[in-house]
Write a structure and sequence with these properties.
Layout lengths: L10 H9 L25 H8 L7 E4 L5 H17 L5 E6 L8 H4 L5 E7 L4 H4 L9 E5 L24 E5 L14 E7 L3 H9 L5 E6 L13 E2 L5 E4 L14 E2 L5 E5 L7 H12 L5 E5 L6 H9 L6 E5 L9 H7 L14 E8 L6 H11 L12 E9 L8 E9 L5 E6 L5
Helix pairs in contact: 7-8, 9-10
InterPro entries: LRR_dom_sf
Length: 429
Amino acid sequence: MHRAPVEMLPLEMLSEIFCHCLDHSETYMSPHRNRAPLLLTRVCRSWRRCAITTPALWTSLRLYSPFTEHQYRSLVSLADLWLQRSGARPLSLSLTIPDPHSLPASLLSHLPRCTRLHLAAPDPFSAALRDNMPLLESLSLTSPKDHAFYPKEPTFPLDISAPRLRALALDGFPHRLVLPWAQLTHLRVANWEPTKPWLSLLRECSALTSCSLSPAGEILLVGGAPTPIVFPALESLRVHPTRVLGFVRVLEHFAAPNLKHLDVAVPGNIVPLCREVAPLLARSQCQLQSLALAGLRLDAFEDFRALCALVPNLTRLSIAGIGRMSFPSRMFFDEMTRKEGRGCLLPQLEALEMRLSVGKTDFPDDAIEEMLRSRIAGQHSGCSRMRSADVYVHRRIHDWIASLVDQGTHWYISEQGEVVQQRLEAGER
């Protein structure tokens, strides 16, 4: 009987091929009968046997909480079988469940093998995280939105031994957590109130290389002049408050001499962000490479010029959502234009993205074109060549409302290195 070539492959080779069938773009694998690995068990008996006995296919799982109790029990049974097939390999698990107490002991027994773990539950501490986690490198805890500001205290305090933990993400949980803060290198906290207890925890995170904070409360960080916390290894800082008051004085508590990437976005277009960001940069004396600002207010162009002076080596700049300006918008582009015999702002800039809304008498298009053409001409006199640019200019319908805009212009650098102008109709962004 003729056999297909694939049937003559050694099991070890077939197992390796099966592993390449997985969707490696997903951090956690969602079970689906028409996708690997479940699909591989439905082709033929030999493939099923090979797939079931290949532990590497079953080391990642995303478990959602379904709407009915019957569906939930079925899904938990599938998860238990799935993880049994993973053998003793390290796991990546994401569990979204209504009640962690409902998880069977057989499923909980797999948690110490996790290297990555995401738990979304009202109280994930009590049942799921009571054991030591010797392999855990990344932990993410999410509270339901109705518990975001004042969640109930954990039934059991979170106090685990996780010697390898480096990345932590918290969404909507209180600060009363006993964790190895000093060994964390990546921290992301959302829906938190910027109070002094949180500052005490941040002070313990001396090894951070990246930090993302999304304050949601309206409690101000008050109580005299702050003592900045020095983060010697911090390279990336992202601050995106959901409310304006959640941002007030947050940056005053940071000093980061190794900072390379800064991303700050504040709603409302009422915070003079340049004045908020400049002291952080001056205090840190860092060599910033990329800066993203959104929702800022500019009272004077001198504020922007002073900010640029603090970041002479900046290679990427993104500015979005500037409110009303007391100066012509063309000043941005005039001072970034390279001209013989004079310097220019941000001489090392290679990538620029700006989104401006301008008044009815503000016409910066010629200045934008001149700036872009001068910056794509190649490296000259210490000025780097600009390789990418997207500048959107929208005209305000009412001069006092920055968000109500009409038609505009989009300037960009094409793949061929040419400056291109594109007209935008009303509603285009």
